[in-house]
Protein 1
Amino acid sequence: MQQTRAEERQSEDSPDANPQAGERQAEEAEQQAVQGQAQSEEPQQGAETVEVEPVPVVRVAPDLLMQGEAFALTVESEAASAVVATVGARTWNLLEAEPEVWWTVIPVPRDAATGSAEVTVDLYGEGGAWLRSLSASYIVLVNAAPLEEIILGGTGAPADPAEVQRDIAVRFHDHIAVTGPPRWDGPWILPVEGEVTGVFGAQRSYDGVQSDEWHHGHDIAAQHGDPIVAPAPGTVVWTGEVVLHGMGVILDHGAGVYSGYWHMSLLAVREGMEVAPGDWLGNIGTTGLSTGPHLHWEVIIQGVDVDPVQWLGEDRPPLPVVAAEPEGSADTLG
Ligand SMILES: [Zn+2]
């Protein structure tokens, strides 16, 4: 667009250039204004097909991550009214998190292919007109979590399949909506201190029989009754009990990011409550299918489980970048 304007101006200026224009300044100014109007109509018709902006910025961060981690996708575009990312067969709608800054968090599934991967970004303008397609790449490393052998001692009868389905539905499928922008503004805090007894992504065997599933959460063993706290701001969207994971709480942190707290002995919150980091959610227990008092902590992004530990550190998906305030930079200089 800018380039087109510059070309227009050149072709306008050269015929109009008149070194003897001094005398009839006002007249000529009027004439030029008229000519300017007339000439600008022509290129504007042509400009409909040349409606482009500078190539929008697309950022993936982190761009080196493990199976079961998540990245932030940021697209800076003045022209877009909607931005949709595609990874494999799945699409992700970006939020306009700041003016002209589109952003979302995308999980890399535990069973994603390792190596170089690509996210495609489609930008749409007013009325849903497709503007352009861009892409960015990132590297997926293998999640080398060890095999964990769980001894249940053959206790009890197998769970009712319908109850198992409900357990899965509550944790993975019932809470997937993007209800608003991200609610956290920094690293998350640990929901409870204790010994790590299970890591995300580990292949597991139960009583010597290897499962084809992986461990969907991060296990922290603690004393029965120890308090569990919210690691980040959120809304309580579910509390209750399911057959395998026992008593639990699910928080919505915005941006499609949910976290779950399981095997609890006591629930201290109700659905609809807002929580801040450090707020009490309930107590450590061993309800459901569990070998001792511990927290099974999950982070699930629009139905895809990821490693909660990533959210505690500096390699967590970064928030949309907010333009630095001039006051702040002045302070830094002073
Ligand atoms: Zn667990």
Protein 2
Amino acid sequence: MKESRINAWAIDWKKILKIKHFLHRLQNKVLWIFNHKLPEFLTEYLSLLQFLWLVHIGSKPLTVSQKSAMIIAPHQDDEVLGCGGLIGLKREQNIPVQIVFITDGAASHSWHSDFKSGEIVPIRRQEALTSLSILGVDSSHIHFLDKPDSKLQYLDLNTRQQIIEELAQLLLSFQPGEVYVPHRQDRTKDHEATYELVKTAIRLAGIKVEQIQYPIWILYKSLLFRDLKLHELAGAYCLSIHSIQSKKTKAIKVYRSQYEAIDVGLSPVLKPAFLRRFSLPYEVFFKTDSVMPND
Ligand SMILES: [Zn+2]
């Protein structure tokens, strides 16, 4: 009788040890998910949620105007991600569209030994030309300013002034009705610097033009309700691009250097989670300010 009671105790201890081991493993798993997967999951789904909220609730409908447009992109891919549908729709109606790339795009792979001397520049340039030809933009309407990538916020005064003058010259010669720039709080230094450079260039050119912002990173790296003022949120517009979505997808797919890994085991520059919303048949723009000559 006494011996069987001892055996029962021994079995209980084994069970307790097993449960303890199981709980320890469970705790490690939960911690791993919390540290590694949760931020990725939240970023991806918050970004999609913010975009869908803008599309279905927080914006007014936008129709493509007959005004000529100049799309200003810091890097080769921003124009098609942010405005690919708009560009295609305008070109289908033969509305003039010019594209200006500010930087040479050299920084996207500069950490890799095969690309450290700007070898990616001609690849990105060709991708831009091919991608935009799908959307109906002729190469003679595409301008590459070839400024240093990832350095637009740290320019010396002379270089900054030179870029502003080049932009003002293009604005004066083309006289666009609309200018599209990255969002002023796009959470990427080159993008935010581009907004400021263009705003100054419009003042220098002295032309009256509507300045419209396209969001690229702000929906992915930021919380709109926390970071934008109500009057800015109220300036959101949504363009349906259903009729041209397949063309836009084709144009994005040309940018293989950005969404494909450059080497085995490496991550691509643009992750699938970030790219997901750009495959949806909507584009969002912010019309919060128009720049007048003496603004
Ligand atoms: Zn960019």
